[in-house]
């Protein structure tokens, strides 16, 4: 069950006039935008949240394209990891990974959401390129992506360290908890977790026509994950192509195979069997 935010996440940013929005300040395309608090004198009529919005994810996230930047609003709560922190972490630990350039970010405590402004990434989403570039070099794309994955998947963390997660990942407690949920054994969870984007679907990988990866976007779910999940998740619908194609599952299959080359096993059958038993 999902609860609608107040105001709804899709109304987080509204255009008030052709050159006026109810948000912040940034440098964009050589123009200066100023961030200030709204006042009682600001008009309340004529606001349009749809005109610049390019993405709406349920009740928790939405994205607007204004000028040369993307403006993202995401539901926020105390102790929640921020996407801007994830991007900063990747730039520090794996600088070769092409992440969006963060212009500005802030938390609006009044409406419990985080705002993030990033520069536009060149290229097209893989989903769009799949349709628009009939000669897209998918083999080259996978080779480049495999190299990028190898660089950040080597950022490891032991699950017993409290700075990663709480005590429920303790091996003995975890095994008892899993058995209590369902006697069917879950996929094996190693004590060392790997830093992973976790949502490398075709709408989050930006590519050029020659197959070069120009950017990887949407880092809000990046975190440390057990090894089995890295390649296994590629079988889920989030990795399906949304464009018209003979096989929507092809990208997930190819990415899963590329991850297997990196040493990450796909445990699709084991995971589906365990989930089916739990539900």
UniProtKB/TrEMBL annotation:
Residues 177-226 form the Aminoglycoside phosphotransferase domain. InterPro entries: AGP_Transferase, Aminoglycoside_PTrfase, Kinase-like_dom_sf. Pfam families: APH. Gene3D superfamilies: 3.90.1200.10. PANTHER family: AMINOGLYCOSIDE PHOSPHOTRANSFERASE DOMAIN-CONTAINING PROTEIN, AMINOGLYCOSIDE PHOSPHOTRANSFERASE-RELATED-RELATED. This is Aminoglycoside phosphotransferase domain-containing protein.
């Amino acid at each position: 069950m999902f609860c609608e935010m107040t105001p709804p996440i899709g109304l987080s940013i509204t255009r008030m006039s052709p050159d006026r929005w109810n948000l912040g300040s940034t440098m964009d395309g050589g123009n200066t935008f100023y961030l200030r608090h709204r006042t009682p004198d600001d008009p309340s009529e004529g606001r349009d949240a749809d005109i610049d919005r390019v993405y709406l994810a349920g009740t928790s996230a939405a994205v607007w394209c204004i000028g040369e930047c993307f403006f993202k609003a995401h539901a926020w709560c105390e102790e929640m990891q921020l996407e801007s922190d994830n991007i900063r972490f990747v730039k520090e630990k794996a600088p070769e990974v092409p992440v969006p350039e963060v212009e500005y970010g802030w938390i609006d405590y009044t409406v419990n959401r985080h705002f993030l402004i990033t520069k536009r990434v060149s290229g097209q989403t893989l989903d769009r390129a799949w349709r628009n570039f009939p000669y897209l070099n998918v083999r080259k794309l996978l080779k480049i992506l495999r190299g990028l994955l190898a660089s950040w998947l080597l950022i490891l963390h032991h699950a017993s360290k409290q700075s990663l997660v709480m005590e429920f990942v303790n091996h003995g407690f975890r095994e008892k908890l899993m058995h209590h949920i369902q006697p069917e054994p879950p996929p094996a969870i190693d004590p060392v977790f790997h830093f992973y984007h976790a949502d490398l679907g075709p709408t989050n990988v930006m590519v050029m026509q020659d197959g070069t990866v120009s950017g990887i976007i949407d880092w809000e779910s990046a975190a440390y994950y057990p090894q089995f999940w890295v390649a296994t998740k590629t079988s889920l619908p989030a990795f399906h192509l949304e464009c018209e194609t003979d096989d929507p599952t092809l990208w997930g299959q190819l990415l899963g195979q590329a991850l297997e080359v990196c040493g990450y096993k796909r445990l699709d059958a084991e995971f589906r069997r365990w989930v089916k038993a739990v539900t």
